[in-house]
Amino acid sequence: MIYLDNSATTKPFPEVLKTYREVSEKIWGNPSSLHHLGTQASRILEASRKQIAELIGKLPEEIFFTSGGTEGNNWVLKGVAFEKQAHGNHIIISAIEHPSVKETAQWLSQQGFVVDLAPVTKAGFVDVEELAKLIKPETILVSIMAVNNEIGAIQPIEAISSLLMDKPTISFHVDGVQALGKIPTETYLTERVDFATFSSHKFHGVRGVGFIYKKRGKKIAPLLHGGGQEADLRSTTENVAGIAATAKALRLTMQESERVSQGQQALRDSLITALKTYPDLLLFSGQEGFAPHILTFGLKNIRGEVVVHAFESHQIYISTTSACSSRAGHAAGTLIAMGVPTKEAQTAVRLSLGSETDASQIEQFLTILKQIDKQTQKVR
């Protein structure tokens, strides 16, 4: 089996599963309880929070645990919008955001907020000059992803940070789900970023756990009310085992991030060189300014799901761009926003490399691609 769908989810590290199991078995008290078992759980919770904060260069009191990226994005957009609605009702997101941002923004537009989409270039990067034109006196939030989940384009977070530097009333949110452990943290967690979202299962942690970064002093309305957990901002009993496993996964990921990213970059470059030799292949991901782990292409006139299943018959697992929309059969929204014709966008498939991807797997992938290309020539 060759797994090349790591942007959808990653395989948990063995050490992470061991941590999850041990904490579940030994530290199973409720961290809000006053007795000894609760104190044990609370210590593990806060130690994990501290470790995560240190790994991303932030403070422990700026880390808040969630169930994952979708909740985190929903929380930041809705929480900031309702917290600041007395000061304005205008929100800007990019045209290539993840559905958990796009659909949340659409919902907010039905609640009286005004949402504008910042356009992207033909290569898939947010046009900062066009974004600047969208800013109004009533703008309260800008939300831009760090790495696009469909083609891997690294967004100009530093340039947008500079644009917003003299606009302190605008909150700046970054969806960092596809960035953590893949590109340097300082490139998207700039001093100007107020909120950022992360998900454990994207960096070899367990599913159902994530966290947001909220800069100290910034306000956000809670989505969940009840027991007062997470500084009264996210009420629900914390998943202590999952959070401890997340801290372990992040530590292991960050320790090896430079080495893994360099290896992925080399593999991706060799893939691009090989793909360019196919006359009927559409290459949607570039090399400069793209994350090392994502590569998206298509075979002319062959729908992406056909290619996915053709590879699956050889036990090679890839994806039709975003896992959150692939089963719905939607064309890649990022490609449409880039101006790619719908028929071409429907051919798109995404390879996303993992920490265990090696040259032999890429060689096998290219061997099967050659077979699929030959089999589909008559259809094309």
From TrEMBL:
Pfam families named in the record: Aminotran_5
InterPro entries in the record: Aminotrans_V_dom, Aminotrans_V_PyrdxlP_BS, Cysteine_dSase, PyrdxlP-dep_Trfase, PyrdxlP-dep_Trfase_major, PyrdxlP-dep_Trfase_small
Domain Aminotransferase class V: 2-365
Sorted UniProt keywords: Iron, Iron-sulfur, Metal-binding, Pyridoxal phosphate, Transferase
Enzyme Commission identifier(s): 2.8.1.7
Gene3D superfamilies: 1.10.260.50, Aspartate Aminotransferase, domain 1, Type I PLP-dependent aspartate aminotransferase-like (Major domain)
Organism superkingdom: Bacteria
Cofactor: pyridoxal 5'-phosphate
GO MF terms held by the record: cysteine desulfurase activity
Family: Belongs to the class-V pyridoxal-phosphate-dependent aminotransferase family. NifS/IscS subfamily.
Record-given protein name: Cysteine desulfurase
Species whose genome carries this gene: Streptococcus rupicaprae
